[in-house]
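re: ur question from earlier - yeah i can do the single chain one, its not a big deal. heres the input i used so u can compare w yours
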Amino acid sequence: MFGKNNIIWLNTEAQRHGDTENYIYFVKNSVPLCLRVEKMRKYFIAIIIPEPLFQEIENIKQELFSKHHLKGALRSPAHITLHRPFEWKEEKENVLIEKLKTFEFKKQFSLDINGFSFFEPRVIFANVLPNETLNELHTQLTNFAKRELKLFNEAEDLRGFHPHITVAFRDLKKPKFYELQKDFSERKLKGAFSYSGFSLLRLEEKWEEVLSFK
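and the output i got, formated as tokens:
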């Protein structure tokens, strides 16, 4: 943007105004200037699992942390992803919310959870049994996101839609995966719940629900 030799960065000035995230203060050729920085935040769209199944799954994640130091799945509440994480301007979050409010999918449906399965060699998840209404929700939401939000990363996922509830991933290494695979292949988990709508989550230190859309 500018040559390093004729810029003096005014970090103390930014701190004085308490706006180090939104503005960069500097001097170029003896002229004090500032640039506004648009902060991007990460979001994703999901079904957050309701109680009592929610707590049962969270307990499993806590157990994996306590016994095996696996904490990756603890960064988000138990959920089924409907749209992969994407970036959005923080100051335009209200625009994102208002747009999502216009998405209409009012069908209520029942979801069944039964046992565990795997994305070898790094992911352990609770099985979500096939559900045509859930597939329809995902398809319509993906199309809406492309058309109204200009988000294309979900549509570019060549793996297709495979609804699941992750209990371990990311920090799960191959040797530990194969060790736990034996246990979770035989482990029982069964539950069902009725649902409609979806939730928007935002990454803080962990993923947190911003709003539930019903």
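The domain at 40-213 is CATH 3.90.1140.10 (Cyclic Phosphodiesterase; Chain: A,). not sure if urs matches, ping me
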